[in-house]
Amino acid sequence: MSSIFDKTTDALATAIKMRQMRHNVTSSNIANAETPHYHAKKLDFENALAAALDMDGMNSLATADSQHFAVGTKPAVSPDIYENPDVAMNNDGNTVDMEKEMSALQENSIMYKTALQLINKKMAALKYAISESR
């Protein structure tokens, strides 16, 4: 992002993207609740967000020569999506637990809205700073 945005804004933008991905996975599970032999998916949100929030490059390497590969740059973050091993299988081979999925969807929705509110407040503060400098 541009230099007017700080690390918090970048972190909130990444969190919003991850929340959208989690919403898609959870919605897919809910949509396939009646599909025989469908296995519920899970998104590894926390580890992917932690990797994305490594803003200072604390876990990255530095290069000593200009011809070395730039390993200190922030890579594109993509969370792991895998079959959820923590659920029981129904008689038809489906592993979707509707109560857990609906609860996860509601929690994710609340966290998404919270991140949006925080980023809106940061943008309002920038707008205020710009308008007051006239």
Structure description:
The protein is mostly helical and 134 residues long. The protein has one domain (7-64, 74-86, 94-132). The protein is 51% helix and 4% strand. It is built from three helices and two strands, in the order αβαβα. A two-stranded antiparallel sheet has the order 1-2. It is elongated. The model has no long low-confidence stretch (mean pLDDT 82).
Topology:
Layout: H1 7-31, E1 41-43, H2 45-52, E2 81-83, H3 98-132
Antiparallel strand pairs: 1-2
Helix pairs in contact: 1-2, 1-3
Uncertain regions: pLDDT < 50 for 5+ in a row? none
Helix content: 40-55%
How large a portion of the residues is in β-strands, by DSSP E? under 5%
The H/E string reads HEHEH
Kindly provide the radius of gyration, computed on alpha-carbon positions and rounded to a whole number of angstroms: 20 Å
Biggest beta-sheet profile: 2 strands, antiparallel
Please outline what is shown here.
The protein has helices spanning 7-31, 45-52, 98-132; strands at 41-43, 81-83.
Sum up the structure in keywords.
mainly alpha; 134 residues
